[in-house]
Amino acid sequence: MNQVDSLQVGTEAYDYFSQLYQEYYPKIYNYTIYRVGDPNIAEDLVSEVFEKVLLNYYTYNSQKAKFSTWLFAIANNTIINYYQKSKRQRQVSFTYLQGSESKYHLEDMVIEQEAKEILLKAIMCLEERQINIIALKFAAGQTNREIATMLDLSESNVGTILYRALKHLRTLLNEVGTI
After folding, report:
1. Cβ proximity of 33 and 44 under 8 Å
2. For residue 146, how many C-alpha atoms fall within 13 Å in the half-sphere facing its CB?
3. What's the whole-number mean pLDDT along residues 29-51?
4. Torsions phi, psi of 46, nearest 5?
5. What is the pLDDT averaged over residues 40-63?
6. Phi-psi category of 99—alpha, beta or left, where left has phi over 0 and alpha has psi -120 to 50?
7. Is 74:49 a contact under the CB 8 Å cutoff?
8. Half-sphere exposure of residue 22: CA atoms within 13 angstroms, side-chain side
9. pLDDT 10s digits, 80-139
10. N or C: which end of the chain has fewer CB within 10 A?
11. Domain range for residue 95?
């Protein structure tokens, strides 16, 4: 990903951005959906993130951070801006959970859907920082080190916050009788 900071405008640059988009879209989308809970808003925000990347790729410096760290920082800031502009509270929409593979029976799909709904409702009860770290870890597949760099925390602090968040999540799920 170090090629980003040396790209010139042209077909090669657009091809490279296309590859980046294909690689990172699912990770950014999953991260965003964990943070905002609505697939339509998530799609809009992810589009905004990639627009910012396209317009500001020349500011990326591979000496300062990995490309994925830079990209997730843009995503995080875009989500923060969204909440500040709209003064919205986190909400959960479950329509994006549909479309499970057809090999499941209808009953299995309903059970899986309900479990996902309960889990996301519980996640939305956590503190914002905990949600952010869970989203980066599990939705975006980032390592503790990458999360630490992105959020300006120590790696052990990320691990501690993650541990406490998962412990609190387990308590919430126990209260509703899920686990």
Report:
1. no
2. 18
3. 91
4. -65, -40
5. 90
6. left
7. yes
8. 6
9. 899 888 876 555 544 444 444 445 566 777 777 777 778 878 888 889 899 999 999 988
10. C
11. 2-175
Whether 133 contacts 99, CB under 8 Å: no
State the CB neighbour count (10 A cutoff) for residue 151.
19
Q: What is the CATH number of the domain that holds 124?
A: 1.20.140
State pLDDT tens for residues 63-92: 888 888 899 999 999 998 998 888 765 555
Residue with tokens 């869970």: 134
Which pLDDT score is estimated for 96? Answer: 47
CA-based angle 131:136:140, to the nearest 5?
Answer: 130
Q: Does the pLDDT at position 11 exceed 60? A: yes
Q: Please say whether the beta carbons of 37 and 90 come within 8 A.
A: yes
Cα 163 to Cα 118: distance, rounded to the nearest angstrom = 20
- φ, ψ for residue 162, nearest 5 deg: -65, -45
Mean pLDDT of 145-156: 91
How far is residue 28's CA from residue 19's CA, in Å, rounded to a whole number?
14
CA 27 and chain centroid, separation = 6
Residue type, 64: K
